[in-house]
Amino acid sequence: MLTRTGRRLAAFPALAALAAVWTVACARSGAGGAPPPAPVKIETARVVKVDDSTEYVATLKSRDSAAIMPQVEGEVTQILVRSGQRVAPGAPLVQIDPAKQQATVKSHEDTRAAKQAALEYAKQQYERVSGLQKSGISSQQDLDQARSAMDSAAAELQSLDAQVREEHVQLRYYQVASPMSGIVGDIPVRVGDRVTVSTLLTTVDRPGSLEVYVNVPLERAPRLRDGLRVEILDGERNVAATCAITFVSPRVDDATQTVLAKAIVGNDQGALRTSQFVRARIVWETHEGPVIPVLAVTRVGSQSFAFLAVEEKGALVARQRSVKVGEIVGDDYVVLEGIMPGERVVVSGTQFLADGVPVTPQG
Fold first, then answer.
1. What is the mean pLDDT of residues 2-28?
2. In a domain, 31, yes or no
3. Whether 102 and 176 share a structural domain
4. Cβ(321)–Cβ(305) under 8 Å?
5. What is the Cα–Cα distance from 96 to 268, expressed in whole angstroms?
């Protein structure tokens, strides 16, 4: 039986052999077993013009829009247009029952005819009394009375003429006409409805320029000024129109604590519509700054990181760096902190990288 010391001496040659094998394996790994550099796509951080901007929800309003309301009360008997129809200035839109006004006009015209006859009789009386007065048959008083009666009849007829003209003008209001050329909007009234002077019959909008209304929070208001660029974005966040601020309200909306800014928007193609909600981007200023592809940025929690391809000892290695990015411009992030223009950024394969791993550019 081997003692404890004997067993130790017997195991020594085996340990020595294992150590020799480990040394050879390590030597071979150091000589040619190191992993090859990871192939990655590398791009250089470039400098572009970057807009310092803020987006807001805005409203488009027509600069040439008319709300059509009647100038008389009555019952709608005809609707002479349809929504979306193009109309010319003076085109009839809605007919209101004119029967009562027509009766009033007829009554005043009949009264006018009677007053006209009374004036003719007063003139004849005056001429007759004038002849008798010259012959000495009638007195001066009779002549004065005849002249007074003639003048009174003429005055009454003149007053009635003005009233008849006014009633004729009022009668024209029973057919509501378009004040300008444009496109008819929604028609909320129906035949048989009774309307008043405050009833909205329809709207007429002239295609062309619109005005965008942007309510800017009070903390941003000091930066508002005429001439600031405003970009109207469509549903895919593409720029549908570009304009400039033309009006900044001197007052603050007490309900929303915002300041109203307006800009005129060209709409020759008719892609934008009145009362449409849009996203309006106000560009406060433009400066130069570095950008890197969105694919180069990795987010871990609230932190953003990117791998740079850095040359060390004649080889490229990946070095992870914390970065602060801003808005997206096209397919790139605007870099606020962490990367300088000209530095090489790893774009692909970042999920397999670790700090210090050798890399080689693809292609």
1. 40
2. no
3. yes
4. yes
5. 35
